[in-house]
Amino acid sequence: IVGPFSAGDSYRKQFNKNLILTNTSFYSEFELISKNMSKNSIKNVSIIYQNDTYGKYFYDAFIKYNMSQNYLYSIVSSGSYERNSDNIDDCLKSVFNVKDPFDTDKITEETVNKIDAVVIFAAEKEISRILGYLKKVNPNLFIYYNFFVGTNSSNFEYISSFNTNNVYQSDLTKTNISRYPELENSLTKQLEKHNKDKSEEEIAV
């Protein structure tokens, strides 16, 4: 199997020469996110995740990871939504503990300030809307989201009017690929060619 979609720990319990991983494990991603939250003195965290196998696994793994660590932040709320659905109302009600999340004028400073950061495990379709809403409610909010939802530039395309400071997308790839020297060499050359072509394209423009 080459590049399985899941970053679940079950794929990584022991080395399998027939399994080529091109993305990192969830726990490596969580470590990156958590260290950055500690660096930014985050105290209270909320979690948003899509209500399917992928999202639930991510959520459960994040809770389990944090229980095994000694980070100085607390998970204070969470909310889930149905994948490929435009309806995130109930998710936001749960995250902010409000009856009407879209009446942002009535979301008190006390409610907003209970949450320093939001960690999102979402599909690409919903990410822009979630990012836009969270930044509308609290421009200073720290937001962390998983790597498999496109790029920052594409996700910010529809929220250019909002403050995009303190938004982090974890980007972890090529883990374990050093076990496959020929593949690593080939991939490295392809990445170098891509970056060179991109650079020349930008210069031309």
Summarize the structure.
This protein is an alpha/beta fold. The protein has helices at residues 26-39, 53-67, 89-96, 109-113, 124-137, 152-155, 181-204; strands at residues 44-50, 74-81, 117-121, 142-145, 167-169. The protein contains 7 helices and 5 strands; from the N terminus they run αβαβααβαβαβα.
Structure, explained:
The protein has 205 residues and is α/β, with parallel strands linked by helices. Helix content is 41%, strand content 13%. It contains seven helices and five strands, in the order αβαβααβαβαβα. β4, α6 (152-155) and β5 (167-169) form a beta-alpha-beta unit. α1 (26-39) packs across α2 (53-67). It is globular, with a radius of gyration of 19 Å. The N and C termini lie far apart (40 Å).
Explain the layout of strands and helices.
Elements: H1 26-39, E1 44-50, H2 53-67, E2 74-81, H3 89-96, H4 109-113, E3 117-121, H5 124-137, E4 142-145, H6 152-155, E5 167-169, H7 181-204
Parallel strand pairs: 1-2, 1-3, 3-4, 4-5
Helix pairs in contact: 1-2
Key words describing this protein structure:
205 residues; alpha/beta; single chain; 7 helices; five-stranded parallel beta sheet
Instruction: Please outline the major beta sheet.
Output: 5 strands, parallel
Global shape: globular
Secondary structure tally, helices = 7
- Based on CA atoms alone, the radius of gyration comes out at 19 Å
What share of the residues lie within helices?
40-55%
The assembly state of the depicted protein chains is single chain
Structural class: alpha/beta
Terminal CA distance reads 40 Å
